[in-house]
Amino acid sequence: MVSREFIQGLPKAELHLHLEGTLEPDLKLELAQKNNVDIGQSTIEEVKASYQFNDLSSFLAVYYPAMNVLQDSEDFYKLAMAYLAKAKENSVRHVEMFFDPQAHTSRGVDFAEMFNGYYRAVTESEERFGISSQLIMCFLRDMSEESALEHYEMARPFFDKIVGIGLDSDERDNPPTKFQKVFEMAKKDGFKLTMHCDIDQKDSIKHIHDVLHVIGVDRIDHGTNIVEDQSLVEYVKEKGIGFTCCPVSNSFVTDDMKGKEMKELLDQGVKITVNSDDPAYFQSYIANDYYELAKKMDLSQEDIVKIAKNSFEISWISEEKRAAYLAEIDAYVEAHK
Ligand code: HPA
Ligand code: ZN
Hints:
The protein contains 17 helices and eight strands.
């Protein structure tokens, strides 16, 4: 089996990462104190003990209230910079980071205050960490399409600083087609599109069908239930549509990391990638996600290298950058022969 060291040093892109999910207990406590927010816990152990979840909705019930500690631009900047430092340790060269504006505006935080903090980290990431970074704005699917449209307009002054539009939060009874209009607008405006198709949802296959054939996404977040429908698998293979899989996250919100599904898709030539999703909550950064999957599925070095290459192949970057990152992987593999 491939070693942890090999994985740790392997150049990779992270494409499924919620900035709000990188809020580590120590920063959460520091910001709670700074901003005078009562989070109900006062030690790291207490914060960790509050991480009791066994499905997507119980996770989200812990996740959203914690965001109260994020108040001003500096807080958002600090959060993103702390993640980028961890990403560097994991040999991440490029990252496309989700943020959830509605989770902040709904508690009175100004859109620009939040956005400017995150974006400042983006502008500094190359020089500080050697990581190129981009932002993907997600809508919360348990809120209305009207709210998504409102936030789309709030983001308009910042359109040139956002690469794509995504959809997250609770999928149950919130199908992709609820947001058809706003995603159509985003596509026309030149954004890349992605949507969460969470694991083992009530209407997983219908939702995967609709994100592909009605919305017309460029990528799918999670989405491994697609193995249940071979015609959909053939479609994503033909179109080169990639999947941002998150094995450790899956093992927290379902009974399994879904490694079998990932390996099956990989073997069929589907562009699957491995990512950390909400690393502070699942206590696993990206190299550990690769390692846990490799261990569980007994992956070869070749499989792991393929996954890392896929991550750059489905990144929303220029062809020049893509070629440079792929060459960096080849050089790394060569040096480890
Ligand atoms: N699914 C849905 N919503 C989320 C997730 C996820 O994996 N992570 C953070 N918000
Ligand atoms: Zn996610």
